[in-house]
Amino acid sequence: MRLELTLCKEVIRNKFNIDDKYNNSRSRLNRHTLVLSDELLDIYEKDAKEHKYQIQFESWYFSLIGSAKRLKRVNLSEAKVEEKKEKQEETQEEREEGFIIADTAANTKDKIVVGEIEKRISKHYKNAYFIKEEIFNRDKSHTVNIGDIKDVWDKAVLEHIFDIYETPIRIETSMGDDAILLGKYLSLFYKDSKNVTIKDTYMHKNENNLDKFVLKYIDKKSTKITFRAFWNYKIKEELINRYTNYKGYNSKVIIENKKLSHHSMIESDEYIIDLGYRLRVFGDKEDNKTEQEVINITRK
């Protein structure tokens, strides 16, 4: 998943350091979207000139222009800039730089700052994530659990923030994990999709989970849904009628060959979520607790 990132100047500077220890950082800069304001670009350009990587920086920056996936601009003059409430000992220039970076990030979808921002500044931005460069430069772990997702979303621990957003992702769910959290997390990979395929061998036996943990995140007006399932001849026509335009959704039904129907998944425009043992992963009781399972998310 592509994240919108706002970077401190040191992180940009290290992109042009040929030391292998910054390889992961360089890779992530290419994988995600850089967010800039005019004020932040001025900071980058000044640092590039002072540290003699101006030519490399300008060449790289101009390669980003025109790509909405790699570069996003925000206008701080039109944005609500956070109030600087306390007196600070640093120079005016140093004060402004930290707040410019944080204000730029605050006006993005993901609100992520990478680099060193002092706590006296970051405390004014309650909804932002402040990530140290060492986390940005860390190897990705492909296996996460529900606790890792909860830590990131509660902002208590951010070590796994890139692990839970960068595919491929292997999620280990245990008996009794938070099914609501799992459903909300998985929805990130399909909720904005124009076409979603939901495959479950016995869809009608997991209908509560379908409604509560999957469909609630899909827009009825903008998304087309394809249900793929196996139903025996006794209930086939009844369930085809039921799941065609199911509960107001724009949906159709494809009946699977029984031998090909055991693999369950949710497929969006960009991702495939392999669910393992069907929508049963969200639990078999009305307690919002998961079953034990391994879920794999890959980019198509």
Description:
This protein is an alpha/beta fold. The chain folds into 2 domains: 4-139, Rossmann fold (3-Layer(aba) Sandwich); 169-299, Endonuclease, Chain A (2-Layer Sandwich), CATH 3.30.870.30. It is built from 11 helices and 13 strands. The chain has helices at residues 9-15, 23-31, 38-50, 54-64, 92-106, 119-122, 133-136, 146-153, 179-187, 207-214, 236-243, and strands spanning 4-7, 33-36, 71-73, 112-114, 129-131, 143-145, 169-173, 195-199, 224-229, 250-255, 264-267, 271-276, 293-299. The strands form 2 sheets. Strands 6-7-13-12-11-8-9-10 form an 8-stranded mixed sheet. It starts with a strand and ends with a strand. 32% of the residues are buried.
What's the short story on this structure?
With 300 residues, the chain is an alpha/beta fold.
Task: Describe the secondary structure blueprint for this structure.
Layout: E1 4-7, H1 9-15, H2 23-31, E2 33-36, H3 38-50, H4 54-64, E3 71-73, H5 92-106, E4 112-114, H6 119-122, E5 129-131, H7 133-136, E6 143-145, H8 146-153, E7 169-173, H9 179-187, E8 195-199, H10 207-214, E9 224-229, H11 236-243, E10 250-255, E11 264-267, E12 271-276, E13 293-299
Helix pairs in contact: 3-4
What are the defining features of this structure?
300 residues, Rossmann fold, Endonuclease, Chain A, 2 domains, 8-stranded mixed sheet, 13 strands
